[in-house]
């Protein structure tokens, strides 16, 4: 990776998340993680779009790993006696709604910087969660996440070297992603206990995480100076160009449908696992012990 684990880690000063006292905080956190891993089904789309056999082979391996992580998070939620809740709408937008339109957007935004941020959240959870068994599972998961980030970085640098003009669109996508992360952090700051020792450090952690994201953008070559040195006009321009690109992409897909069939096109497509995973029989079966324990405690 272009950033080391040491660079990406944040010092919480020994603050911990207690599995009993901080159960609702952990429930919210792990529900977001679970949804993020469920979005691993999107890797199948990118296997079809892979530019070469090496990339396709890597993504096939990644797809298996992402689905293994779903099981890992369900096991950790069992250990911590947590039941999942729906993911926050901003996270759903970032992980699914902002899915790249092409290979370059995917590797630059979703793998290099997106999974890079998730990796930092994993590091933070490992550093603060007072539950050795769950931490051991997360330690194994981060090694795979590190390989995903590394792949995204290398593929992004390769794409930029071949087509330097890509920088503007890919920067626009990353600026939108960073905006979404700030919105999500704002929700956490307002809705979850601000006096909790770990959450009390949320804003400094966010500043550190976004600083690392900026450093990654510099090292992959998407920018040649810190974001603070780019004018507001330039940043607005690249975001608007991204929006125009996505609008054209959406129109292009629509035009592939014969006009005679448009009246019969359903209002929404088939429901995917990212919509139905909380009621999936496998998820329900794995969570049954946690659900039973929670119900018993409520009595």
Describe the 3D structure.
This protein has helices at 5-8, 23-38, 43-49, 53-79, 89-97, 103-128, 132-162, 166-191, 202-220, 232-255, 273-276, 281-298. It has one domain: Ferritin (Up-down Bundle), CATH 1.20.1260. The protein is built from twelve helices and no strands. Helix 8 crosses helix 10 (232-255). The chain has 299 residues and is an all-alpha fold. Residues 259-268 have low confidence and may be disordered.
User: Could you give the count of β-strands?
Assistant: 0
> CATH superfamily assignment?
Ferritin, core subunit, four-helix bundle
- The SS-based structural class is mainly alpha
> What count of structural domains?
1
Helix content, binned percent: over 70%
Q: Beta fraction of the residues?
A: under 5%
Distance between the termini: 49 Å
Q: In this structure, how is the largest beta sheet organized?
A: none
Number of helices: 12
Give a quick precis of the structure.
The chain is built from 12 helices and no strands. It has helices spanning 5-8, 23-38, 43-49, 53-79, 89-97, 103-128, 132-162, 166-191, 202-220, 232-255, 273-276, 281-298. The model is unreliable at 259-268 (pLDDT under 50).
